[in-house]
Design a protein that fits this description.
Shape: globular
CATH topology of the largest domain: Rossmann fold
Strand order of the largest sheet: 2-3-4-1-5
Helix content: 40-55%
Order of helices and strands: HEHEHHHEHHEHEHHHHHHEHHEEH
CATH superfamily of the largest domain: P-loop containing nucleotide triphosphate hydrolases
Radius of gyration: 23 Å
Number of helices: 17
Number of domains: 3
Distance between the termini: 38 Å
CATH class of the largest domain: Alpha Beta
CATH architecture of the largest domain: 3-Layer(aba) Sandwich
Number of strands: 8
């Protein structure tokens, strides 16, 4: 097995996700779900493996919708995916085509891989989307049809508030109306940011309360060590004790497969012998490097993008304090340490920002009600980047 940092991992080389996938299929038998994860955790690999090993009674359509900027564009990508699938059995999206013909006198012939609907169809996107879904379901009797839409929060953020509200409401209605239809929303930035933004302009619906929330965790230490061992052996990297060094690598990157692949690839490039000191040195190099393939600056940038100015001050102060501390800290301890700054002296606002940071995978609150960084790797980055 060879290192493949950031590339497309073959389904049979995706290690340690079988139990998670079994659970996902079980949930999808009864309802749609929101699949959330920190960046680089491997949610795309999980989806790819699910599609590659699809049970006989299921159909999966996978699409990254991060760049979609309007409801009509969303209809275009759904229609394209449905037509592409239907063509395999010499079918077409008849209902959607009929709607377009009635509205615009337009016939779509051999739609290919780049569907572009006329601007005049924009006000009719709801009926077009509904008819497109029906075209697919009509051809899939007794089959569970699942749309995996990656980065839905980004798509909603790209749209106007009114459009985002309507898209969420229409998707919920479709889930309610069609018993064999399932949707999976994924994203590295939580859907809560998009919905909270809409709440501030009067949105009162609960568009995802019928969906089950699941998190993609790190690998178990056993599976992460197994992955590191296979890569070390596959790349013939010199080491004094393969199992021990593989375990060190797994632990030092919180058992996240993306970083394991990257570390092994760097050892191949540098021709270093693996030991605890060289692993830590390479990790620190990657965390310090602003141009690193790890792109750790994202953890600061997204606070600037998704938090208000007031929330940013609280978030940065709280994360700085937690990065300095060797031990988890309670709410009173955190309040005491950030109150020296007059801009972060409100206890209730501190509590709310801590909740946001937990939802966004920066921190966790343990059973002892004390807070700490969720991942040691991110804590180390915070220490190095913010001094």
């Amino acid at each position: 097995m060879r290192a493949n940092p950031g590339g497309e991992i073959a389904p049979d080389e995706i290690i340690g996700r079988d139990r998670l996938i079994e659970r996902l299929w079980r949930v999808l038998e009864r309802q749609s779900l929101i699949l959330s994860a920190e960046r680089r955790m491997g949610k795309t690999c999980v989806i790819r493996k699910m599609k590659a090993e699809l049970p006989a009674n299921k159909l999966a359509i996978v699409r990254d919708v991060e760049d979609v900027r309007s409801p009509l564009e969303f209809v275009e990508v759904v229609l394209q995916d449905v037509e592409e699938y239907l063509r395999k059995s010499n079918q077409i999206a008849r209902k959607a085509r009929s709607v377009l013909k009635n509205l615009n006198g337009m016939e779509l012939k051999g739609m290919g891989f780049g569907i572009k609907l006329p601007d005049s169809a924009a006000s009719h996107w709801k009926i077009l989307l509904t008819q497109t879904i029906e075209d697919l379901l009509d051809n899939q009797k007794d089959v569970r049809t699942i749309f995996f839409w990656d980065e839905v929060p980004y798509m909603l953020r790209n749209m106007s508030d009114e459009d985002a509200m309507e898209v969420l409401d229409v998707l919920r209605r479709l889930r309610q109306d069609y018993g064999t239809l399932r949707m999976v929303f994924t994203g590295s930035i939580g859907l809560h940011h998009a919905i909270d933004k809409l709440r501030k302009v009067g949105y009162t619906n609960a568009p995802t309360n019928d969906m089950y929330f699941m998190d993609v965790p790190s690998l178990s230490e056993e599976d992460a060590t197994d992955l590191a061992t296979r890569l070390i052996q596959g790349e013939n990297i010199p080491t004094f004790d393969v199992q021990m060094q593989a375990k060190d690598i797994a632990q030092m990157v919180n058992c996240i497969p993306f970083y394991i692949h990257h570390l092994i690839d760097i050892f191949v490039e540098r021709k270093n012998t693996i030991n605890e000191n060289t692993v830590q040195a390479i990790i620190d190099d990657c965390l310090r490097d602003p141009d690193s393939r790890w792109q750790m600056r994202h953890y600061q940038d997204r606070i600037e993008s998704y938090y208000s100015l007031e929330q940013q001050r609280y978030a940065l102060n709280l994360l700085d304090v937690l990065a300095e501390s060797d031990d988890p800290l309670s709410l009173p301890e955190l309040c005491d340490r950030i109150q020296s700054d007059p801009d972060t002296s409100n206890k209730e606002k501190t509590r709310k920002v801590l909740d946001l940071l937990a939802k966004d995978y920066y921190i966790i609150k343990g059973k002892n009600l004390k807070y700490e960084f969720r991942l040691d790797l991110i804590k180390r980055y915070w220490q190095l980047s913010r001094g």
